Amino acid sequence: MGSALYEKGKTVHNKRIDGPFRRFKWLVMLVTLAIYYITPWIRWDRGPYAPDQAVLIDLANRRFYMFDIEIWPHEFYFVAGMLIMAGIGLFIVTSAVGRAWCGYACPQTVWTDVFQHVDRFFDGDRNARARLDKAPWTVSKTARRLAKWAVYLAIAFWTGGAWIMYFADAPTLTVDFWTGNAAPVAYATVAILTGTTFWLGGFMREQVCIYMCPWPRIQTAMLDEKSLIVTYKDWRGEQRGSLKKAAKNPDQFGDCIDCNMCVAVCPTGVDIREGQQIGCITCGLCIDACDKVMAEVGRPRGLIDYATLDQCKAEAAGAPATPAWKALLRPRIFIYFGVWGAIGAGLLFALGTRTHTDLTVSPDRNPPYMLLKDGSVRNAYTLRLRNMEARPRDMEIAMLGLPRGAVMWTDAVSVENAAPVQVIAVPANETKIVRAYVMLPPGTDEDDSEHFAFRLTSLDEQGEQDIAETTFAMPEDDE
Amino acid sequence: MANKRIDQPTGTETVGHEWDGIEELNTPLPRWWLWTFYACIAFSAVYVVLYPAWPMIDKATAGTLGWSSRGDLAKEMTAADMARQSVFEKIAATDIEKLPGSPELMQAAVSGGAAAFKVNCVQCHGAGAAGYQQFGYPNLNDDDWIWGGTLTDIEYTLTHGIRWQNAADTRVNYMPAFEGVLDQSQIGAVANHVLSLSGKAKANSIGAQLFTENCAACHGPVGAGMPAMGAPALNDAIWLYGGTEAAVRKQILAPRHGVMPAWKDRLDPVTIKMLAAYVHSRGGGQKAAPAQPDTTPTPATTGAVAQTAEKAKTDG
């Protein structure tokens, strides 16, 4: 039935291969997995008032810690900036080296690779695995499958378990997790991530890339004839033929001996000789395979290679092969890189110049002012004093630009202690909300309202300041 | 389906349809996708049984789990009430003047009071508690209190109301109308004297004399008022019904008397306590004086006030 509505899934049994790209893939896998599993366990001393985990997304207290950087909710633009950089970073990578992300660094690729090695460990290489798949369900096959799936599950659980370590103190959470004292959301997250890793990495694999993931579609739109892709040089390879055939008629056949090694090693099961396709994640394993075969048969390497379509065209027309890195030097990549670098530089600048104190003021609008018995006028303000240092600090609040006689007090300091300046103790790593009253003495001559500012000064050696402008409202007329 | 053919560039079979030369390639879905679809159908079948689903005439089918969003809300509200219960109990057990001594309790009381204020008080006193002068609803943010501004005073006012007929212990006083008692020029002189108390007019001896004879008994010799009997201070910058000469004359001729409901029948004591804390915290609250000789009215005064009240009622 060529016209069936649904296609039965085919398991990809990719053959083991060794070569430069495979080794690079091992390296990337090692680095990415190491970062993923080790990062939450790195300790970073921030003193007694802040967590000592180097990378921590503290959702409950709304803080994001990354080594020496601490991001507060009002600084979310740093996170937004990093997300934009990640987006543009993918644009750079795609226009420069095509789907390198898909081929090496994407978690789906990395975990699929891990699971395929588990397959190889339990069931042998390509042919053995294909045979076992078709074999009837004997006791030994069942036992083998159960053992394999148990390892899948262990890997999946470790994956999900590592994820939650980013959101709480890792050693404490580990103990809580195993003693049943962790938050329900921790168990739910681990369960969901274990399930998805088991299912997507163990069984769906290339189906995720081909049918589920939006990124290949976006990349299809972003690739052009100057982007590096993995390509089969058909002008050199065709007409395909076995060594025997080629020995008989050397003029009729190209370099491809039709050994199918490129298909056998492909982790997504595509035939690269059909050209660019959505299933090709450009991992380069077919290059390793083909180079090996070419070496064995004594033909030059690079029948399948990283190249741009333009380079292929030039090569086919007889020009000498261009080194692949030359594809990187083009305006599009420079423009992306410029934007990416500018955002990065802007973020670094903002990070370097930010102070660790912050003051925001919102005046009471209802009522805007309050006439008191003796004719003085009082305004009320809500002050938010941020102390972004991991230690408690005293902060001084002063008023700039109000007439003489203006005094201030807060909900903590009663009106008897009203003074032009107040000192407020702000706990470490916290925003203190203070309701402040400002009073002008009777007879102050102001028509409507007056602009002035609160100045926050940290009373420590840093002496950081922040100024927040606001207004003082007065009665409109004297009745 | 007779026109199926193999599409040359892709090597894929077409489905056989053709619209103005546009053909469709047959690229089959993977089978697991189909299973996902069936799984969704199975899920929905279970869901329909367990949860509210089919719309009927007045409401949807209930579902065997008996879940409803209203029920969720009720559960959350009950849980929130339970969580607040211990704080409420502590507030109930604490004497109101002792509340500020415990910052957490005071903060809880002020927050609870702010919420209750929005429901029960803003209709007259406004969302910012600033009152409405044109209607005589007093401002609760300032430091002028007709009936006293300590926590105890405010709690009493809230509990028993002002001139609230259905509450036996309500705060009552009535300023007599001077229409027909004083003539126009005398009223002008008194009004002038009243304004002079806060420096808004020049002093005049006729007005001062009339004030001493007619007004000082309640408002005091210098017009400082008497919170114990609800006589407002006249020597400050705050005027319940306006501080112009015309407004003062009007109030002497035919005084207006505001009414505030007694809340003891409608709110529980803890809510009233929290409301008092909130109003007290608006910036003008007074501290309870160590010795308060004048807080409780003497029986004689009460009698006089009650008589005046009866008179005013019959007059009105």
Automatic annotation (TrEMBL), chain B:
GO cellular component: plasma membrane
Annotated Pfam families: Cytochrome_CBB3, FixP_N
Residue stretches of biased makeup (Low complexity): 288-309
Record-linked InterPro entries: CcoP_N, CcoP_N_sf, Cyt_c-like_dom, Cyt_c-like_dom_sf, Cyt_C_IC, Cyt_c_oxidase_cbb3_su3, Cytochrome_c_Oxidase_Subunit
Membrane-spanning segments: 32-50
Single Gene Ontology BP annotation: proton transmembrane transport
Keywords assigned: Cell inner membrane, Cell membrane, Electron transport, Heme, Hydrogen ion transport, Ion transport, Iron, Membrane, Metal-binding, Oxidoreductase, Repeat, Respiratory chain, Transmembrane, Transmembrane helix, Transport
Gene Ontology terms, MF aspect: electron transfer activity; heme binding; iron ion binding; oxidoreductase activity
Localisation per UniProt entry: Cell inner membrane
Main location: membrane
Residues binding heme c 1: C121, C124, H125, M260
Binding site for heme c 2: M175, C215, C218, H219
Region (Disordered): 284-316
UniProt remark on cofactor binding: Binds 2 heme C groups per subunit.
Record-linked SUPFAM superfamilies: Cytochrome c (SSF46626)
Cofactor (UniProt): heme c
Pathway terms, separated by semicolons: Energy metabolism; oxidative phosphorylation
Cytochrome c domain location: 108-198, 202-283
Domain of life, per lineage: Bacteria
Function of the molecule: C-type cytochrome. Part of the cbb3-type cytochrome c oxidase complex.
Record note on quaternary structure: Component of the cbb3-type cytochrome c oxidase.
Membership in a protein family: Belongs to the CcoP / FixP family.
Entry protein name: Cbb3-type cytochrome c oxidase subunit
Organism in which the protein naturally occurs: Erythrobacter ramosus
This protein's encoding gene: ccoP
